[in-house]
Amino acid sequence: MDNFQHPVPGKLTTAIVICCYSDKRWDILNKAIESAARQVPAADEIVVIVDHNPALALRLRAKRFETPVRIVENIHPPGLSGARNTGISVSRGGVILFLDDDAVSDQDLLATLVRQLEDPSVLGAVSAIRPLWETDRPSWFPDEFLWTLGCTYRGLHPGPVRNLIGASMCIRRDVFDHTGGFDSGLGRTAKALPLGCEETELCIRASKALPHGRFVFEPSSGSDHVIPADRATWKYFLHRCWAEGLSKASLSLMAGSGEALASEKTYMTRTLPQGVMRGFADVLLGQPSGLLRVVALGAGLAATAAGFALGRTRAALTRRFTSVPARALEPVE
Fold first, then answer.
1. DSSP 158-216
2. How does DSSP classify residue 258?
3. pLDDT at position 256, please?
4. Strand 70-73 relative to strand 45-50, pairing
5. What gap in Å lies between CA 321 and CA 185, rounded to an integer?
6. CA 26 to CA 269: how far, in whole Å?
7. Transmembrane region positions (predicted)?
8. DSSP 3-state of 100
9. Which residue among 37, 183, 235, 291 has its CA within the 20 to 30 Å range from the CA of 328?
10. Which pLDDT score is estimated for 157?
């Protein structure tokens, strides 16, 4: 079905792309699609990319949505990067809003981010991404590490940012025309927690190719990102920090340490120390959870640093880093 609304002259055309892979997320996936359909004003097209799960694609095609939704199966390698690249290829909007399949968006999310892109120097924008805990939020979990859950973390300020966060990000199609798609050597898959940072790598590559452009964080609208119980654990927290360290090691080899670690230097020298001070201040106010957050800050930093060190050591020993370069994406009918 061709559900693309043909453009009005001078108006930015919009596409919403939602990537999904698991039947286990059926209920929240439907809420995510419904929130995309409720955007005011409406997107010109909504495309749902199913990552190598034919049964899920069939189930989605059988469902009646209030707004036309195009269901497409991933034609690229399995994983989030491949699914997003498929979404870029099959959609036609001049601006693409990528949403996670477990995030429910505010009604004005698309409009808020598109307003940022009316400035021709803005290449992309990201909204606030709020954690929606399925269980009680752990008292030890620090706001500074909400990035481990794909959410906006304490220390991220409105305005220009190095990179976007994938759960709720809007990017000009021109960015992909100039730089290619997401690197398929990065990005999560259904079977593992491999190298991430695919959004960071894309944004760094785009900033090099389009040096007068910038990416921005606009927190006045956003999405609620579901956090299941199995992610509200120490095990997941430390595993995710470890994976981030490995990812940053690979990214530093691909993009150079300066660009790959620029934001992390500020994060380590300002954001984390401020978090530690807040934790100890809470302890003095009679809140013992403050000490737990201090421990989590230290443990998260240690796990991330260990992953980074291991990733760099492996690269030095093998002198090889395997990645599939992102290339220009051809439209798919």
1. SEEES---TTEEEEEHHHHHHH-S--TTSS--SS------HHHHHHHHHHHHSTT-EEE
2. H
3. 62
4. parallel
5. 10
6. 41
7. 290-310
8. strand
9. 37
10. 93
pTM here is 0.88
Question: Which strand (E) or helix (H) includes residue 262?
Answer: helix 257-266
Residues 6+ apart with CB under 8 A from 258: none
What pairs with residue 79 in β-bridges?
Answer: none
Quickly tell me which residue has 């966060």 as its tokens: 165
Identify the pLDDT of residue 321.
47
- DSSP string of 1-49, one letter each residue: ---PPPPPTTPPPEEEEEEE--GGGHHHHHHHHHHHHT-SSPPSEEEEE
Cis amide prior to 54 (ω within 30 degrees):
no
Backbone angles phi and psi of 288, in degrees to 5: -65, -20
Short-list 56, 82, 93, CA closest to 71: 56
Cα 183 to chain centroid distance, Å, stands at 14
What is the mean pLDDT for each group of 10 consecutive residues in the chain (333 residues)? Answer: 51 95 95 96 97 97 92 94 96 96 97 96 97 96 96 95 93 94 71 69 92 96 96 96 88 66 83 96 95 97 94 70 50 54
